[in-house]
Amino acid sequence: MPDLLKIIENVIEKGTDSIKPYRDYYDVCLQDTKNHVENLKWLEKKALEAQNRAYFNRDLGLSSDFHDLRRDIFTAAALFDFDSYLIALEWNRKPEQRFYLPRRKTLKVIVDAIQDLEDDKLDELFLSQPPRTGKSSLVIFAMTWKIGKNSELSNLYSAYSDKITTAFYNGCLEVITDRVTYRWHEIFYGHDIASTNGKDLTFDIDRKKHYPSVTARSVHGTLNGSCDATGWLISDDLVSGIDEAMNKDRLISLWYITENNFLTRGKEKCKVIWEGTRWANGDPIGLRLELLQTRDEFKNRRYRVINIPALDENEQSNFDYEYGVGFSTEYYLSRRASFEYNQDIASWNAQYQQMPIEREGTVFESGDMNYYNGELPPDDMLVRKFMVVDPSFGGGDYTASPVVYQYSDGSVYIPDVVYDNGDKTVTQKLLVEAIIKHGVQAVRFECNKMTMSYKEEVERALEEKGIKINIMSKAAPNNQSKEMRIFDKAPFIRTFYFLEENKRSKAYKTFMVNVYSFRVTGHNKHDDAPDSLAMAADFIERPVSAKVEFMKRPW
User: Fold this and answer.
1) Architecture of the CATH domain 90-311+349-357
2) Of 238, 293, 383, 542, which residue has the fewest beta carbons closer than 10 angstroms?
3) In this structure, which topology does domain 366-541 adopt according to CATH?
4) Domain limits, the chain
5) Maximum C-alpha span of the chain
């Protein structure tokens, strides 16, 4: 069979306009579809090219034939490939009305992870993304795929309220029963619903079973004894909202329910999907992850975490979907501005950036900071302009460097920042540009022997441009943690004047979000921005450090 496929591939690669070799290749793959999914995907791409060629040549009949072949290819592959299933399922819908294809560029990473879960490459999957971006709908589609592939397995879906579980139940039934909108029955030919129970939110495929094909039940409902999961165990937003997230006793109670009532419903080989807003580190997702990451008993447990924030590292929306069904960058920036205005950036981080709320230990609140509209004090009050640099060589960490204007009345203004997680060739260039733009007179780098080259390369770049300024280095203190250094300097930092929201560059906005997110207790994913401000405060208070030693007079 591989030899036959190769022979037909060679014919197709030559760009034949006949549909026959495409159909022949398709028919050969159907003899062992499970092991020829990748061959079918290759054929679909070639069929699309042929369809477009035919359309360009105004052979609309041939173009239509290739279009139908592509439908058949996706339908065949759908039995084993989730991505193909999603495309085949909505083939008859208008492009702007489809769920998956307009969102595919963002959701494909989740689709691939669900595929790995089904192919037994993973045991657990953790998914988090902002509200109304498609995560719940995608899981509905995934469940209809799962029960079509194997109707004998029992699957359990749970959420914090009956309203959500009812929506999931109805969503699954809609996909299966709406033959005009969806092609479920064409993909899983011969399968159908055997029974439904709207009161208990259960339904069966092919035959009525003791444990139904799908059960949707609130995590606070009756789970023990009445539910079982041999296929998938899905939790969707077990935390009801911010009130519960901020109540430690309620979170502890919720975890006990999750551990004792929900997880125990799954058989040993059952796959687990956790999805929802990361409200707090102590929520069920956080505690389950802590178990997997810290206990030796779970060292062989295979899991993957996918957190997709509203705004990426470049302040661009991850969910600006086609046909306007998503959310633009402008929308998310305005939402963040509202949270900042209400002094609740922690809720923005949780709901939209997938960063759990931990208000305890928060050091900088937006309402406690000073701002200015871009107009600086008179030049005759200016004492000096300087920068401090917390360098990074990339790899996810940020190079952070505020541009500092210090005035004779003691006020400190931050008109600009360098804040970027690119490699050193990017950040060094940004630093040089900022130094020249603002006429900075002094720069202090925090570095050690390993990172001294970063400072020296910036110095050489300035010399090549004929710029001579005072460039210094200082090692990070080894007698104090970074968190405590920031905490100690926080009262002084709060007196600094930062640009108002509508005056900030993209880098400046990201810098300030990092400042507001810092906590003195717990884990900080990035603390480069507040640390650079602590360095600036230290530079103002102790501009020069020197060690004095006594020695004998030389004469």
Assistant:
1) 3-Layer(aba) Sandwich (3.40)
2) 542
3) Nucleotidyltransferase; domain 5 (3.30.420)
4) 1-77, 90-311+349-357, 366-541
5) 106
pTM recorded for the entire structure? 0.73
The per-residue pLDDT for 483 is 82
For residue 363, the one-letter residue type is V
What tokens were used for 91? 């083939």
* Tens digits of residue pLDDT in 88-97: 999 999 999 9
* Digit-coded pLDDT (tens) for 158-198: 999 999 999 999 999 999 999 999 999 999 999 999 999 99
Q: For 280, which DSSP code?
A: B
SS3 386: strand
Q: Is the pLDDT of residue 359 over 70?
A: no
- The rounded distance, in Å, linking the Cα atoms of 37 and 43 is 10
**Is residue 278 exposed (0-12), middle (13-18) or buried (19+ Cβ within 10 Å)?**
buried
Name the percent of the chain in helix, strand, coil, to the closest 5. 45, 15, 35
Please, is 454 exposed, middle or buried when counting C-beta atoms within 10 Å of its C-beta (0-12, 13-18, 19+)?
buried
Q: Which residues of 402-419 are buried (b: 16+ CB within 10 A; e: fewer)?
A: bbbbbbeeebbbbbbbbb
> Using CA atoms, how far apart are residues 213 and 154, in angstroms rounded to an integer?
4
